[in-house]
Amino acid sequence: MTWMSSIYESLVDPLRPNDAHGIALQLVGRDKTVLELGAASGHVTKALVSQGNTVTAVERDGRFRDQLSTVANEVVITDLDWLDLRDKFTGRTFDVILAGDVLEHCRRPDLVLLQCHALLAQGGYVVVSLPNIAHADVRLALLTGQFDYRPTGLLDATHLRFFTRQSIEKFAAENGFEVAEIFASTAPIGGTEFGPPPADVPREAIEFVQRDRDSVVYQYIARLRPTTSPPRFVGYPGDAHDNDALLAELGLSLDALSYARTQLHLVNEHLVT
Question: Which of these, 64, 63, 187, lies nearest to 46 by C-alpha position?
Fold first, then answer.
């Protein structure tokens, strides 16, 4: 087996300072049953297992299945946007659900979080890490009209949702959770993939942004604790769907996804021949 690396792979050490992975690992703890969403090539999975945790790894990219199988206790290949988690794990619960650097890639992260209610054991919680779109480097770039997507980082080209401290708290509350703890990894102004602020940004603007304590936050790492049953209605203002109806409406089964992929494969073969 050839070991493949994910573009998001990095050093994982629970004692590494100022590191989102390390903070998340400390929040997960030891000897837990963990559902890891978006496991990629297993760089965090290995660290979770080394802490005595039993890990079920969920990953979209099937190319990582074999690698994950060597480190995780169980591997599930699926796309979170197909909303099949409750069906996949019917009757099972987990002490911790870890969603590290994954919800910002989902079309409806609220629906993913809603499903976590049914998957958490008594006393269980969710650990998330989310990039801070309000980092000073993004704000200052916007002053000059720049909002350029990149392969990774704060403006990763695959990010579909963007978060700040306040929107994380709102996101949690709207889906029946509260932020029990929130931590941050930081990068100074000019210390991200953006580099130094554009030369034409006034010094006064930089000083204004610096006064915000969150201007140097690169990622938030939060422990979300369920508070009540999920809110009855979810979605956008004016929606009149309850949770189950909305999940059923938007969630296609794995069988449907598999069938669609098979048909696409047959079409591609036909085009090649």
Answer: 64
